[in-house]
Amino acid sequence: MPHAHLDAQLLTIIAARFKVLAEPARLLILDTLRDAEMTVTELVDATALGQANLSKHLQVLHANGFVKRRKDGQFTRYAVAGRDVFRLCDIMCGRLDAEAAAHRKLVRVR
Amino acid sequence: MPHAHLDAQLLTIIAARFKVLAEPARLLILDTLRDAEMTVTELVDATALGQANLSKHLQVLHANGFVKRRKDGQFTRYAVAGRDVFRLCDIMCGRLDAEAAAHRKLVRVR
DNA sequence: CCGCGGTATTACCATATGAGCATACAGTCC
DNA sequence: GGACTGTATGCTCATATGGTAATACCGCGG
Q: Which residue is nearest nucleotide D26, judged by alpha carbon to C1' distance?
């Protein structure tokens, strides 16, 4: 059967989620957290982002369910909430690869 | 083996791609084009977006490889370039479903 | 209790971008 | 060629948002 079209309101919500990932800094944070739980300070060191900036991005990521956090004394330890984020990035990268290949084919007509 | 971390420049490119999808209007366009090739005017009717606005969004979608276009006389017929866009949306929707379910579980403690 | 390190928040600026209008451009038919 | 339809492009405005500095908050150790 044909696909049911999406409601306008749902589209807005989905767009908002994509917007969270539409930011190099946030992708960097997610990539840095890929295999390890880290504190904010550790992230500051690892990413070279400002502390306030980082903290705000972490709030956004958390509010949208991309990272989970855990209070540990005076520290806050962040980790990615699920692997599907990376699946999204992988698909995007796949698109980039395909385009790059197509480009090469156009340029080098051998 | 552990995953290789992504280059900052690549992250910027990926973010730019996500940004294209971070817009309800563009998602609406893609959804409208899901199963059919359409002209700009048809899209204006189907989406209730302004013509100029629509045309600009189509340029963005095309520049980023999400739609392909075909000149047909004085018409320009647009179509989705690949199905992977919908895979991206499906993953996002899956996330939303999971959160909704978790919410219900929290609210209705039965 | 007080200072301190770790984190979150607020205020501010600069920038980016979506919407809409007007207009330019292109192809078709008379 | 001129009028008309279809599409793209500039321009302007309003808004949203990322970066940063200053500061508030919070838990811990002395």
A: A74
Write phi, then psi, for A4 (nearest 5 degrees): -75, 135
Task: Find how far residue A30's CA is from the centre of its chain.
Answer: 5
Phi-psi region of B5 (alpha: psi -120 to 50; beta: other; left: phi over 0): beta
> What is the mean pLDDT, run by run of 10 residues, along chain B of 110 residues?
80 97 98 97 97 98 97 97 95 87 74
Q: For residue A84, give the nearest of B24, B19, B9, B97 by alpha carbon.
A: B97
How many whole angstroms from its chain centre is CA B32?
10
The whole-angstrom distance between B80's CA and the closest CA on chain A is: 13
Kindly report the pTM of this predicted structure: 0.91
**Strand D–CB A43 distance below 7 A:** no
Task: Please provide the size of chain A in residues.
Answer: 110
Chain A interface includes B56 (CB < 8 A)? no
Dihedral of CA atoms B63, B66, B70, B74 in degrees, nearest 10, equals -70
The answer to whether A31 contacts B6, with C-beta atoms less than 8 Å apart, is: yes
A42 three-class SS: helix
Q: Are B56 and B43 in contact (CB under 8 A)?
A: no
Q: How far apart are CA A83 and CA A34, in angstroms?
A: 9
